[in-house]
Amino acid sequence: MTEEAILQTREPGWAMITLNRPDRLNAFNRAMHGALADALAALDADESCRAVLLTGAGRGFCAGQDLSDLDAGDGPPDLGDTIERFYNPLIRRLRGMTKPVVCAVNGIAAGAGANVALACDIVLAARSAKFVQAFSKIGLVPDSGGTWFLPRLVGDARARALMLLAEPVTAEQAEGWGMIWRAVDDAALLAEARALTVRLAAMPTQGLALTRQALTQSGANTLDAQLDLERDFQRQAGRTPDYAEGVRAFLEKRSPMFTGRKA
Question: Which end of the chain is more exposed for a tag (fewer CB within 10 A), N or C?
Answer without folding.
Answer: N
